[in-house]
Design a protein that fits this description.
The complex is a heterodimer of chains A (273) and B (252). Chain A is an alpha/beta fold and 273 residues long. Chain A has helices spanning 16-29, 46-49, 60-64, 70-73, 99-110, 126-133, 146-162, 164-167, 184-188, 195-202, 214-222, 233-245, 262-272, and strands at 3-8, 34-38, 75-76, 83-86, 115-119, 137-142, 174-182, 206-211. In chain A, a hairpin with a 6-residue loop joins strand 3 (75-76) and strand 4. In chain A, 50% of the residues are buried. Chain B is of the alpha/beta class and 252 residues long. The longest helix of chain B is centred in the N-terminal third of the chain and has 14 residues, at 29-42. Classes of the chains: A alpha/beta (273), B alpha/beta (252). Chains A and B meet through helix 7 of A and loops of B.
Chain lengths: 273, 252
């Protein structure tokens, strides 16, 4: 049986899709058979971040409505052969997804994969609810900023009450906190929430902290998941997070401002300009 | 097998109940009802649907002067449920019985009902606002159960402890809402909303180990964060009503 992982946040623009792409790629790079599903029907982005937008023929809505078979819609990644992508439809809306349809897709994928990542849309409406409904584990992506923390808190409550596990009164969904777009310099200056504040409010185990990095934007624009950029601090942070997810004991890095050169200089210089 | 008896459908047992007595000082419903109404507007929901006994002992009027039917109707309109009478002359009790109010015999003698006092009619002339608080607390304060929540209460979650106190042993986050008919205890940080005494118990209190709320309310009186003024934010605090004033007192 595959583990179903939802990547969720409540709030938009915090890095769900970047995280889904990086995490799925990271799991696949470690030899796990992984599929990542875009649940953002109508605003599909995952295919772009994964660099497969030109290979999309069918999508999850076609599969649910019986217009295509699952393996016709699955896109095999060209860089990592244990990784597949199931894209969202751009021309439909979220009502095209049904619980029964999603269940059928997940059951079918379960036979072939170790991990099924569900990239949730923002909000707490139908698309987001369906993305988290079948989850065994959840990666809650949060920026160190009050509105993001509050929305993550909200989605944690939804996970506790609206997931299949909660409805069936089974062991609850395992929750992981991933703080993204963390800027140690601004946190130190009090322009951003401190890591401790975020952890105190959300009160779930910390899977990783991904620093704000230009490499994320570059990775998105070139359709290469940032985890494949081994020079980038964001890529390394994602790689650490995947390792921790699989049970490795790794210290958290990139929490302090870098004092000479590198990141600090780049960020500081960027703002002063 | 023939000796099988029919299933039992009821049992008669004696029971003692603590009831409020509304002692009439004026025989005219048109005089009593408006002042009762005034009193209850100051404590909305106070005595709502509470059974009440009408005390006739203090009335200096002839039975035919009292329109019991109008009184019963008026009390119902105020959402008070009269269930019988106590005291008064036999003729007076009989007049009440005709209107559907049977005479009740207090346990332990004629004046036993005197222990419980009700503020409304007597206090109708400019009562200090604190008066409803004491009786409300005294008849709901004890014997209440409590609901225990050991998980963080998150944004968008609402927990209602009906007819009970609410105890939370974790944090209550911004955007979360606690509601209890009784007291609220938070052994963590209270960052969301806390609504105590939701069934209009002005004696209910809110306790928080770390007080940092968005809103607190007791029996319909509320204060939003902006209105907390110099309340001791970030400390262990109890919130209670003193009349219509909300008090924030540091604990420990």
């Amino acid at each position: 049986m595959a583990q179903v992982i939802v990547v969720t946040s409540g709030k938009g623009g915090v890095g769900k899709t970047t995280t889904s792409a990086a995490f799925a790629t990271g799991l696949a790079l470690r030899g796990k058979k992984t599929v990542v599903i875009d649940f953002d029907v109508g605003l599909r982005n995952l295919d772009l971040i994964m660099g497969v937008e030109r290979r999309v023929v069918f999508d999850i809505v076609n599969v649910i409505q019986g217009e295509a078979r699952l393996n016709q819609a699955l896109i095999r990644d060209k860089r990592v052969d244990t990784l597949s992508i199931l894209p969202a439809s751009q021309t439909r809306d979220k009502d095209a997804l049904t619980k029964e349809g999603v269940q059928k897709v997940i059951e079918e994928l379960s036979a072939d994969f170790d991990y099924i990542l569900c990239d949730s849309p923002a909000g707490i409406e139908k698309g987001a609810l369906l993305a988290l409904y079948f989850a065994d584990q959840a990666i809650v992506v949060t920026n160190p900023e009050v509105s993001s923390v509050r929305d993550s808190d909200r989605i944690l409550g939804v996970l506790q009450s609206k997931s299949k596990r909660s409805e069936e009164k089974r062991e609850k969904v395992k929750e992981h906190l991933l703080v993204t777009r963390f800027d140690p310099v601004r946190a130190e200056r009090g322009e951003m929430l401190k890591l401790e504040d975020v952890r105190e409010i959300l009160a779930i185990p910390l899977l990783g902290v991904v620093p704000e990095s230009e490499s994320v934007l570059r990775a998105s624009n070139t359709g290469t998941p940032v985890i494949m950029d081994r020079e980038s601090v964001a890529g390394q942070a994602y790689s650490d997070a995947v390792g921790r997810f699989l049970g490795e004991e790794l210290p958290h890095r990139f929490l302090e401002p870098e004092r000479k050169g590198g990141l600090f200089k780049r960020l500081f210089g960027g703002r002063a300009a | 097998m023939n000796s099988q008896t029919l299933p039992e459908t009821f049992r008669l047992r004696a029971g003692n109940f603590n009831l409020l007595v509304l002692r009439l000082l004026d025989p005219r419903p048109e005089a009593v009802l408006p002042s009762l109404g005034d009193q209850f507007r100051k404590a909305p929901g106070f005595l709502r649907f509470a059974p009440i006994v009408i005390g006739l002992g203090d009335l200096e009027a002839a039975p035919e002067e009292v329109d019991f039917r109008a009184l019963v109707e008026g009390l119902h309109a105020l959402e008070i449920v009269p269930i019988g009478t106590t005291g008064g002359s036999q003729a007076m009790r009989h007049a009440a019985q005709v209107a559907g109010l049977p005479p009740l015999r207090p346990v332990g003698g004629k004046d036993a009902e005197g222990d419980v006092q009700m503020p409304a009619p007597a206090a109708a002339a400019a009562p200090p606002p604190a008066t409803p608080a004491a009786p409300a607390a005294s008849f709901t304060g004890s014997g209440r159960t409590a609901m225990l929540v050991a998980e963080p209460v998150r944004s968008g979650q609402r927990i209602y402890a009906q007819g009970a106190d609410l105890i939370v042993t974790a944090t209550v986050n911004p955007g979360a809402e606690l509601i209890a008919d009784g007291n609220i205890h938070v052994y963590g940080t209270l960052r969301g909303r806390a609504v105590a005494g939701a069934a209009d118990d002005t004696g209910a209190r809110i306790f928080a180990l770390n007080f940092d709320p968005e809103l607190v309310a007791i029996a319909g009186y509320y204060a939003v964060r902006e209105g907390l003024g110099d309340a001791p934010i970030g400390r262990a605090v109890q919130v209670r009503l003193e009349g219509e004033e909300m008090r924030f007192e540091p604990l420990g």
